[in-house]
Design goal:
With 228 residues, the chain is α+β, with helices and mostly antiparallel strands. The protein has eight helices and seven strands, in the order ββαββααααααβββα. It has helices at 29-37, 66-72, 75-83, 87-97, 108-111, 122-134, 139-154, 207-222, and strands spanning 2-4, 9-11, 46-48, 62-64, 165-171, 182-189, 196-203.
Length: 228
């Protein structure tokens, strides 16, 4: 599913059964960055100890500040961040970016894509990232986009091999028969004057692998060169 912002031209190749609301895993972490920034002057530094502190990375990421934590999709960092996000701030972000609010009773695990997740439709996710670009003068949005660019350079989206903004997510599989998970990737290209926003999903794999496939799709469809 892709959107070209200048003309608002949308191209959809998404299975009909997957158009409903679902968890996108870690894909929505940039919006937690924006929500946190509404009520805080600065972002924390966290020590990621891997599985012991709730991260997907068994060995951990070590000392994490915001931008590398977003690039690495560090769960330890975002668990700490989401615990400090005020409900009113998150509601405001949902309203501004037209995202569905987390269901009643959701907690920090759901906010970062664990547990039941933070369900959205694919169209809502695509539109929310489009709106993120339109508000990039906002300090917190700029930081989120800096993290997404680092994600494409050496984070979980690096296998896309593009100089772009990237974010990945791995969510529980919603297909039958069930696989280990479903991978999602958001790629926004190019970074200076974005004109293509691609949301991709691949059944039975990770977000990082889906980013690699999405990168291949962009290069093949739009004749884009590899990242230097």
């Amino acid at each position: 599913m892709a959107l070209e912002p200048p003309s608002d031209r949308r191209v959809e190749m998404w299975p009909e059964q997957d158009l409903g609301a679902a968890s996108f895993g870690s894909l929505l972490k940039p919006f937690l960055v924006v929500a946190y920034g509404l009520t805080h002057e600065s972002y924390p530094t966290i020590e990621c100890r891997g599985a012991a502190s709730g991260c997907w990375s068994e060995k951990g990421h070590g000392r994490q500040t915001l931008i590398p934590a977003l690039a690495n999709s560090c769960n330890s960092y975002f668990l700490a961040l989401s615990r400090a996000v005020e409900p009113a701030a998150l509601r405001g972000v949902c309203l501004e970016y037209r995202l569905a609010e987390p269901p009643a009773g959701s907690n920090e695990l759901d906010f970062i894509g664990l547990g039941a997740g933070w369900p959205q439709t694919p169209s809502a996710v695509l539109e929310a990232f489009h709106r993120l670009l339109l508000t990039r003068s906002n300090r917190s949005v700029k930081l989120a986009l800096d993290g997404m660019r680092l994600c494409a350079q050496r984070g979980t989206g690096k296998e896309a091999y593009l100089d772009c903004f990237a974010k990945t997510g791995t969510a529980p599989c919603r297909h039958h028969p069930a696989a280990s998970g479903d991978g999602y990737a958001m790629l926004i290209y190019p970074v200076d004057t974005p004109r293509i926003i691609l949301l991709a999903m691949k059944h039975g794999t990770t977000g990082a692998h889906t980013a690699a496939l999405a990168g291949e799709l962009l290069r093949g469809s739009f004749h884009i060169g590899h990242r230097a």
